[in-house]
């Protein structure tokens, strides 16, 4: 698979994984966009929108007098996003099939936002520079990215989760241009011509019988499994995706442990 390909694939399982992920991460993203200054009446571009999770957060923030243009290259994800917008009567969003670097300026945006898009980009700096070119002076560029070059283990120890974290780090370090893209945001934004950004790192710690973390982790491994096996990091038999969520739940509850999610780093700045 070329470095420009989306590592997670474009399958129904992956789209479901994105929804599970959103149930954990959306509160972080809502707070992040509010801190960045996304607010009523703005016209916003959401790059790499997927099934629309970040798009709908932004749509709520900009309100009926604002608008969110959402772009992605996955037709299946866009179809789901459009259906969700219709079902929920959200009429201040539009979804378009388009690559980020293919998007040309029809009007200057008040903000360009993205979550987990740069980690898959072979040239993240070019993408941030393009985002900067799409906002007017005083406009906002706001990006949230993981640092998957390292993971914080749970406490007390949960051996199965620690093995999954080892697999994450090994895979993303070998199969993405920059597994630590979140840490690089502070530098990248300045290289792209923005002033010193405001940056914050956050992660969720969760456990207990009703946590969505177990299924989110299992579906993430499912999406990544072809690459995991191709690179010799682990085997399908070892990871046993079908039972992985149940085994994670059992070990975590037995240890009364908290599973630590990957560090998500948000950075934003206003174009001068």
Largest sheet descriptor:
7 strands, mixed
Give me the CATH fold name: Rossmann fold
Overall pLDDT confidence? 93
Tell me the name of the CATH class: Alpha Beta
Number of strands: 9
* Structural class by helix and strand composition: alpha/beta
Q: What is the terminal-to-terminal distance?
A: 38 Å
Low-confidence spans: none
Give a concise summary:
This protein is of the alpha/beta class.
Task: Give a description of the structure.
By secondary structure, the chain is α/β, with parallel strands linked by helices. It has a single domain, classed as Rossmann fold (3-Layer(aba) Sandwich), CATH 3.40.50. The protein is 45% helix and 19% strand. The protein has 9 helices and 9 strands. It has helices at 12-36, 53-62, 75-87, 124-133, 159-175, 181-191, 213-230, 236-239, 241-255, and strands at 43-47, 67-72, 93-97, 109-115, 135-147, 198-202, 205-206, 259-260, 263-270. The strands form 2 sheets. The protein has a 7-stranded mixed β-sheet with strand order 3-2-1-4-5-9-6, sandwiched between helices. It has a two-stranded antiparallel sheet with strand order 7-8. Strand 4, helix 4 and strand 5 (135-147) form a beta-alpha-beta unit. Helix 1 (12-36) packs parallel to helix 2. The radius of gyration is 18 Å and the shape is globular. The termini are far apart.
């Amino acid at each position: 698979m070329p470095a420009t390909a989306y590592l997670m694939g474009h399958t129904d399982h992956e789209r479901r994984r994105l929804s599970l992920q959103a149930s954990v991460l959306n509160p972080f993203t809502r707070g992040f966009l509010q801190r960045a200054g996304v607010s009523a009446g703005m016209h916003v571009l959401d790059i790499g929108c997927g099934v629309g999770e970040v798009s709908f957060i932004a749509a709520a923030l900009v309100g009926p007098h604002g608008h969110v243009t959402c772009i992605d290259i996955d037709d299946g994800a866009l179809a789901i996003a459009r259906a969700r917008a219709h079902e929920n009567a959200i009429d201040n969003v539009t979804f378009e099939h388009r690559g980020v670097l293919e998007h040309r300026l029809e009007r200057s945006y008040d903000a360009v936002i993205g979550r987990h898009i740069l980690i898959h980009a072979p040239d993240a700096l070019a993408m941030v520079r393009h985002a900067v070119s799409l906002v007017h002076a005083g406009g906002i560029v706001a990006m949230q990215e993981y640092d998957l070059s390292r993971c914080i283990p749970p406490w007390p120890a949960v051996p199965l989760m620690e093995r999954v974290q080892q697999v994450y780090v090994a895979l993303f370090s070998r199969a993405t241009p920059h597994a630590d893209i979140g840490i690089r945001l502070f530098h990248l934004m300045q290289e792209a011509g923005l002033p010193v950004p405001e940056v914050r790192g956050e992660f969720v710690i969760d456990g207990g019988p009703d946590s969505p973390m177990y299924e989110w982790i299992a579906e993430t491994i499912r999406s990544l499994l072809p690459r995991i096996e191709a690179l010799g990091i682990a085997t399908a038999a070892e990871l046993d995706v079908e039972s992985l969520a149940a085994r994670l739940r059992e070990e975590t509850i037995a240890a009364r442990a908290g599973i630590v999610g990957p560090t998500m780093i948000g950075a934003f700045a206003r174009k001068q």
